[in-house]
Amino acid sequence: MGNKQTVFTHEQLEAYQDCTFFTRKEIMRLFYRYQDLAPQLVPLDYTSCPDVKVPYELIGSMPELKDNPFRQRIAQVFSEDGDGHMTLDNFLDMFSVMSEMAPRDLKAYYAFKIYDFNNDGYICAWDLEQTVTKLTRGELSAEEVSLVCEKVLDEADGDHDGRLSLEDFQNMILRAPDFLSTFHIRI
Amino acid sequence: GDTSGRRPSQKQAPRAEGAAGRRGAQPGRKEPASGSPRPGSSQRKQAERRRQREELGEQGQSSAERTFEGRRKRDGRASLKEQRAPPKKEKEVPRKEEMWKRPKKHRSPSLASSASGGGSLSEEELARILEQVEDRKKLIATMRNKPWPMTKKLRELREAQEFVEKYEGALGKGKGKRLYAYRTLVAKKWVKFKRDFDNFKTQCIPWEMKIKDIESHFGSSVASYFIFLRWMYGVNLVLFGLIFGLVIIPEVLMGMPYGSIPRKTVPRAEEEKAMDFSVLWDFEGYIKYSALFYGYYNNQRTIGWLRYRLPMAYFMVGVSVFGYSLMIVIRSMASNSQGSASNGESTNFTFSFKMFTSWDYLIGNSETADNKYASITTSFKESIVDEQESNKEENIHLTRFLRVLANFLIICCLCGSGYLIYFVVKRSQEFSKMQNVSWYERNEVEIVMSLLGMFCPPLFETIAALENYHPRIGLKWQLGRIFALFLGNLYTFLLALMDDVHLKLSNEETIKNITHWTLFNYYNSSGWNESVPRPPLHPADVPRGSCWETAVGIEFMRLTVSDMLVTYITILLGDFLRACFVRFMNYCWCWDLEAGFPSYAEFDISGNVLGLIFNQGMIWMGSFYAPGLVGINVLRLLTSMYFQCWAVMSSNVPHERVFKASRSNNFYMGLLLLVLFLSLLPVAYTIMSLPPSFDCGPFRGNLLQEACLDSSRRRPASTIFQDYGTTGGSLSSCRLAIYYLNSVSKSLSRANAQLRKKIQALREVEKSHKSVKGRKTAQDSEDTAKDASNATQLQLTKDGTTLHRASQNETPDKKAQDPGTSSSASGTTLPASRHLSIARPPGARPDSGPARPQTHPWRSASGKSAQRPPH
């Protein structure tokens, strides 16, 4: 069965299928996408698990990500050291979470991490400001931005501590009708 | 006896072999699937050493913890506080890792000792191993749902698989053992088969890449139309299979051939023109007398050597087309509504939703992204303005007046278009009686209907600008108005058609007499040698009635084809040529064409979806009288998939006004259901109340029940339908309603449970706030620590309640383990609460740490896992 392609062993493919939401074909497609990003860097043989990282500049220039205002955050969250450089495993992880089949809770967990710009485990007012600025490309005035942040905290902060915990965020995002359809990248 | 002797060797073997296998030599037995086999012996040695260290530490800890077995929960919280004291994260990470691993490492020596020393495994140990193996299996199955980095997932997966591989064989005794091994083998094969099948299935979904392309260029709203189109194509393919497989192919293979009887022969008068293209294009001539239409079918009870009951099959297929469509529409509606369980409280989170869900991650095109940025900015501004002045003072009288005026104008438009169609259909009936009419006069109905469909929606939009509604409400109104227009047009068309049918029916009696008279004269005419039997009259010469069913079928066929052509021509002229003009004339024009007036066209989602829905309505209505209509429709959908994909990619620009796809999906389905009912009505009415033609179609004379009932109970069709039709119809509609309501109630009850949980959580938060305040005076706790404890307590109580509710009818020993599982469950969601797993007594449930973390955060899984019986 696995004789035709030699990128992965059969066991590796099976394990990847267990760990992601992808079928064999999709994993191969993702691998080739990954390989295309840096053809001279990424070997065509992954049976011995080479330790290769593709720099963020290449990851962020993928057509799927290049117009996303949060692309840097996404890459940082899914990379191992938080610097945005990704191994193939990170790459598969990212698109698995972003795939259609991933459950709401998994997506919510990673969405929280993405919107948590300073990595302190909470979405605070500063994180919210960053989010609004990125979403609107800074076209809102400072008062408007602060008003919006205030409103968001007012709505979603369940325990009134002035910032959103993961719990608050999940509470809010699980009710969002569009979250599943928008937090999703097809590849 | 012999089992105990064999077991240790079995257990030692895999480990040794596994070690040998990793060095390179491929072992004979199947190695557990490993994502990243770690070569290099030094690493392994380190791991070995660490394991030893852990075992040593474990003994001390486990003995200490065994004393606390009764008060596990409190113990957990106490140790949580202890663990929180060192706040340094870097230090904790490796410890955490060890904590994750420890339970597993702890177990293996105890198992080995019991296996080798005790001779045979005791019952409870067996049960425990079995449970662990089951847990591992579940872990393997849900591995992809874990929020872990891939390396960790791979490692956990490998360990779990090794564990399962190793201990699976040790379970069971004697015959039971072999049975167990067999069962696991079958289960493994089944999982593999399922995965292969899923792989195969995803490959079979057509146009995935095309739709993905569109999605990344235009966002999810435009793609939703194409997904809808694909769904429609699937439904039509099934209908096509039903009709072709059960009606058309049997008729072609086994029925009487063309030219054998009058209904299957072109009449003498039409014969010389029957093959002209202009005649064929109008579905007259040879096409009219083919298996594509109702009139071709013979009313023999059975056909062919199979004794196939074609009339009955025809009737049942007609019914099942509607039945299947109803079922599939309601099913997809129900599954859609399950997805959006709690949209009732979306008003509470306007800003939060705008902030966190407004960006469509699918967008992969800078132009679309620009539009999206702009629309997000405007929507933020809008809601800020709404927030700031919620009670805006405007000239309410003027607004009211304008709205009334707009509605009045639109009603005028609707009435006018209805009258126009009625007038045109009436006129076409006069034309049909005349000879040599022009092309325009022949196709007037279709042209007028298409033109109305083309020009009325923009007119409505212009009028709607008067009303000054919020865009989203305005869009709903617009959809409703276009729907009313299409519906009105369709029903006017039907009423006019019905008039025509009644006219034909009234003539039928005289034609019947003429036919009889002709045949009678032909056979009894004088001047023929009486001794020789006369050859039968050639079927083309027999005078025949104007089979109204075929006429209706032809009308629908022509409407469908002209609709298709108009759609394509509109796309070609309106979109493609306009795009070409804008693109190439922009170099030599006085103003900027791309940004200025003509610009590029947007993809009209609502219009296209409504067009598709009404087209489907026509198919449903016409398919009884023209079985070939579904085939035409399948072709139409197939071509329009490719054509529209090309057109949208080549000549359209993304939307400025964002139209959310997810919420409107059920709206489309609801419209489709309405259209289905509305198209069911006229068909049911014609079948029930109008007598079938005497000389065409599968139903003999006046009695439809020939098709499905035995002839001894011969009654007029209408009474039969009153008896069987009403009861059957009401029964089936009741069942459908029950199905739909059931699925809706399921989603509602889920929402209800969520709400209850939320209330519980709120209460807990309040309580813990109080207690924390009380404690604050005594001990000086850090802010972060407080929050973490709040959150974890919240998590704990939440888990407790869910598990409690789910496991009400479970064995008590399961309940006893709940604190342990829930504490470990919260470990994945909150980094601070991860340390809870330390406090877990390993004796009670050694592996619940790694196996259970999925129980809480992935709520969907929690119900199932909690209700699973303990082994």
Automatic annotation (TrEMBL), chain A:
InterPro entries: CIBP (IPR051433), EF-hand-dom_pair (IPR011992), EF_Hand_1_Ca_BS (IPR018247), EF_hand_dom (IPR002048). Residues 103-138, 144-179 form the EF-hand domain. The keyword Signal does not apply. GO terms for cellular component: growth cone; ruffle membrane. One of its GO terms (biological process) is calcium ion homeostasis. It is found in: Cell projection, Growth cone; Cell projection, Ruffle membrane. Keywords: Angiogenesis, Calcium, Differentiation, Lipoprotein, Magnesium, Metal-binding, Myristate, Repeat, Spermatogenesis. This is Calcium and integrin-binding protein 1.
Automatic annotation (TrEMBL), chain B:
Residues 1-123, 764-871 are annotated as: Disordered. GO terms for molecular function: mechanosensitive monoatomic ion channel activity; voltage-gated calcium channel activity. Coiled coil: none annotated. It is found in: Membrane. InterPro entries: TMC, TMC_dom. It is a multi-pass membrane protein. Residues 547-662 form the TMC domain. Residues 12-27 have a biased composition (Low complexity). Pfam families: TMC (PF07810). Residues 1-11, 787-810, 819-831 have a biased composition (Polar residues). This is Transmembrane channel-like protein. It comes from Ailuropoda melanoleuca (Giant panda).
